[in-house]
Amino acid sequence: MTKKFNSRLVEWVNDLGQYLLQDMKALEKRNFKDSDVLSDALSYIYLQKDFGQSDYKSAKLEFDQVINKLQKLPTKKCPFCNGEMVDNTDVIILKQYMKNFGFSSFSGAYRDQCNENVWLGNLNWSCYGCETLATDPPKDTAKVWLNIPEIRKKKIFASIVFKKFPEVEAMSLEGAAGRGWLLKFNETWYSNSKVKAELVKVWEL
Ligand SMILES: [Zn+2]
Fold first, then answer.
1. How far apart are CA 67 and CA 60, in angstroms?
2. Cα(20) to centroid of ligand 1, in Å?
3. Which of 101, 127, 140, 170 fits 78 for a cystine, CB–CB 3.0-4.6 Å?
4. CA 11 to ligand 1 centroid distance, Å
C-alpha cells in the first residue's frame, strides 16, 4: 500500500528507507549463507549503521514511527501560484536519515545520490508548484522595494509583481548566489530563486 504524504521530501526519504529495510530483511533471511558472505556482512553492517538499529525488526519499527508522524503535515494555498504549500518544519526529525541515506546537503539543498530528487533545503513552508519558500527577512544592507505608488510607477520587476499581487508589501533581491527574489506577504518573507522569465511563467505575471 502506498502512503499518501503531503511532503515530497518525506516521500523520497520513506521510499529509500523502505527499500533499504527490504535489503536488511533479505540479508537476515539469507543468514549470509551464500558465496557472498563478506559482501553481505558488509552491507548488513552499513544498514545497521544507517538505521542505528541492530536488526530489521527494530529498524523498521522505529523508522515507520518517525515517518508516520509526518504523514499529514499542515498545508495551505500558495499565495503566488495557488499550488499547495506544505509546512516541512517537523521534517527535521528525518534529518539523521537524510544524511545516512546519502541525501547530501549542498548550499542548503538536499539531493539524493542520483540527483533525481532535489530539495530546496528549507524546513518551513514550501510550495511544490512554484518553489517558493518561507524564509528569513533580507539583510539590513539589502535594497528593499516597498509596494507604494511611486515604486509601482517605475519600470522595474518589483512593480510588475506588486500589480499582480497587491498584498505583497515589499520585495528584495539577493541574486543568483543567494536566495533570489524575496517577497514580504502577510508578515512573512518568502524567497524564490527562479529568474524573472521563469517567474513570469509560473506566477502568470
Ligand atoms: Zn507556489
1. 10
2. 33
3. 127
4. 19
Q: Cα of 119 to ligand 1 centre, how many Å?
A: 15
156 CA to centre of ligand 1 in angstroms:
22
For residue 127, the CA-to-ligand 1 centroid distance in Å is 5
Q: pLDDT tens digits for 28-63? A: 988 766 667 888 889 999 999 999 999 999 999 999
What is the CA(29)–ligand 1 centre distance, in A?
Answer: 46
Comparing CA positions, the residue from 94, 176, 205, 85 lying closest to residue 133 is: 85
Give the three cell numbers for residue 123.
524546513
- For the stretch 130-181, pLDDT in tens is 989 999 999 888 899 999 999 999 999 999 999 999 999 999 998 766 789 9
Q: Is the pTM of this model over 0.85?
A: no
From ligand 1's centre to the CA of 77, what distance in Å?
8
Q: What residues contact 110, with CB distance under 8 A and at least 6 apart?
A: 9, 98, 103, 104, 118, 119, 121
Distance 131 CA to ligand 1 centre (A): 6
